[in-house]
User: What shape does this take?
Amino acid sequence: MSDSSIYINGLGNVSPQKTFENNNFLGDPISCESNRLKCIEPVYKDFIPAEMIRRMGRIIKMGVAASKLCLSDAGSSPEAGNMRKIIPDAIITGTGLGCLEDTEKFLTSMIKNDEEFLTPTSFIQSTHNTVAGQIALLLGCHGYNFTYVHRGISFESALIDAITQMKMGELTNVLVGGSDELTANSFTITSRLGFWKQKPVETIHLLDDLQRGTIAGEGAAFFFLDNKKSNHTYARLSAVTTFLKPASVLKLSERLHEFLSAAGLNVSDIGLVILGLNGDPRTDRIYHHLAKKDLTGIPLAYFKHLCGEYHTASAFATWLAAMVLKKQSVPEAIKVQRLSGQEPAGVKKNQSAGLEHVLIYNHFRENNHAFILLSRPS
Amino acid sequence: MPKRVFITGIGIICAIGNNVNETLHSLLAEQSGIGEITLFKTVHKGVIPMAEVKLSTESLLEESGHGGNRSFTRTALLGMKAAREAMVSAGIHDVQQYKTGLVSATTVGGMERSEDFYASFLADPGKGRLINIVNHDCGDSTERIAVSLGISDFVTTISTACSSSVNALMLGANLIKTGQLDRVVVGGADSVTKFTLNGFNTLMILDKTGCHPFDENRAGLTLGEGAAFLVLESEDVVLKEQKKILAEVSGYGNANDAFHQTASSPDGAGAYLAMSKALKMSGLQPGEIDYINVHGTGTQNNDLSEGVAIERIFGDHVPPFSSTKGFTGHTLGAAGAVEAVISVLAIQNQVIFPNLGFTTPMKELQIQPINKLTNNVEIKNVLSNSFGFGGNNSTVILAGMGSDK
Assistant: This one.
């Protein structure tokens, strides 16, 4: 456990933005009038054998493509043509709802056909660990293979498992990711539950919209964690914590300070805080409160206007944080200009020293809360 | 040195008992829990048997103290009952006294209610009672259990098909070993649903006569339901509180078969790796394992693959083994924890529970399971396997503390 740093050495992100090429960092972010964002999907035949593409559900394709992209990113080297094929020690994924499309397909045919004449494909693929299983199968990876399915902290649980075992020395590297898909039926059902804004909203103005609810999204983002720094390390994964609904906002502040002090940091060390603000006035209050009380003067960013709300949206935020630390710049599209009750953050006094730490704070429907801390590799 | 992890409490509800005592009683009486489907309407009733928990959802709800609250799913209620029993068994009165986590596992979550919702929804997207779908996700049952036990420090859910709850045990043990938590309640819960029944039926792996694990004429598995939880505590807590230890978690391993989404490889590569990893962590030689609680679902594919892997690990000295799925059915996401509890019972009572349904040895294997209740055997180390879709293979080794404890 001498140098127990964990580095993010590869990224793969399939999202509603043009993120899967890693070379364009939100240069021309897509804004649209909508309450439902869909992923821009890559050309799958570049990642998956053609005969498999046809059968796979969308989340499986997105997950496999993002993971392959991530591993080739990690294996690529600046010397042209020099590619290293990486088989990770472990594959750990998170998903809130898993393979919805296949689950719905099987459920629908079971009900419509009165339990007769069913075929197994959609049942087989409906299991929550299908993405992780398919990645292992395609890579021939016999290592540790886990899938976390806990609502808004599914991805964070995967990170915690990876960190735990890397620090124990059980694993030297891990492919970790989060994925969720949105289907037409689940959008209809969650609309009835009041999750989404009734009228479409121009996504760049998400935080100004006063309607209840947010905008739905989806995505698959993967990360290659390694105990060694490489020549294109993005960031260090410093710490992750999750907790169930805190009893009060005071308790939340306590959790934040505990989290930072365990990492040996003060709030003032944080160069950027990425918040899970989603435009729902009912639940954004918590972010406003924390920003006002505990994050005074720290530049703030948000991201759900780019990817929508979903259980593993924090994986998109982690991608964002890793890119920010690598590029040492914050794209205009994610900057929070002003929150109600908070003065706009000024230029930080040590700005010239660069961005050292990015904190992500996300909560899912006020119930699942998580802090993720990424740092600039030393 | 990583910290040691001990089991100090167990709880279970399954087809052969609503608690640990009833389950032990049925195991000793060689009483199977497999029978006719009664919990829901299905065309398979009377054709395909199942191992249902012998309590209605209404009774479970009433007993939980939430009578009348329709938002609790059967999966959550089963989990709450078993987890509560585990906490009581561990003598825990004050959850806040130590940093406590909950890691639960499930494969279908609230699917038994989603099925109802979906039938109405398909007829008209504006129809279907929302209370039947809002608790569909896997995290729901876990959070219900967490709230009922007062756990909030760390709560998560694992879903890796039929190996899920052994994996919950692994994460829990790692969190204790690294000092992140002092104790963790680990386990799993799954209720039977039309979805899983029909799903497994399309794969043509449901035995119409009830499962016959490791038998030459086996024709598939029998679905079961239930929940089981174990309380894991650190050595520090155990010493400080002078806790009675039920067993030590001495080794575990997870590996991927990477062969096929649902079928196991003919050489049992993943199973072999999982068992090897677990043995390596425990520091035990294969010869020191006294009993194997096999995954043994009763499908052609699983039992052959697992049997081959066991023969590869243990050579000519395969320890006594049995599948207890003839008692409980295959409880999917709960299976690993159900069988870990049964393994603890085997250690506590120095007994090997029989592999019900076995008569004829498999042609391809040299080995055959124990098919009679075997008393007065010395059982210190038990190895338990759980394998699942997605090539997910898990093994845990539990060690008894000897007669002095």
Summary: Residues 58-75 of chain A form the longest helix (18 residues).
